[in-house]
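Researcher: I'm preparing a figure for a lab meeting and need a structural model of a single chain. I don't have an experimental structure, so a prediction will have to do for now. The sequence is pasted below. Please return the structure as tokens so I can convert it later.
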Amino acid sequence: MRRHRHREVDEGQIDLTPMLDVVFIMLIFFIVTATFVKESGVEIARPLAATAEQQDTAKIMVGIDAGNDIWINRQRVALAAVRPQVERLRVENPQSSAVIQADEAASTGVLVRVMDQVRLAGVENIAVAARSQP
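Model: Understood. Here is the structure written out token by token.
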């Protein structure tokens, strides 16, 4: 009878577990600390205002461009669709506030109607975006 001797080869292996732990911890850190900027989805020339203040807590952004088109989440919406869209966004965060970014060439009537639709959707805290004067 023949006996086979198995020769065990001791090859060096790199344990990747600590490296993966570090990578996942870094990923979680960057996700938690990332700043998510919400925009209405359209380029708007905001009017100047001496009393403009920075507002960081707005979750609902509505844009009105120079052609009086209304934008929410980078999508053009009709005036009649503003209220349902805002109501849908409020489901995610019931205490959210809204910022309306109206172009300085936009009609004041459209701005007032959009504000009315946002308020009818249940948002009480509404701000109109403006640039601060230098």
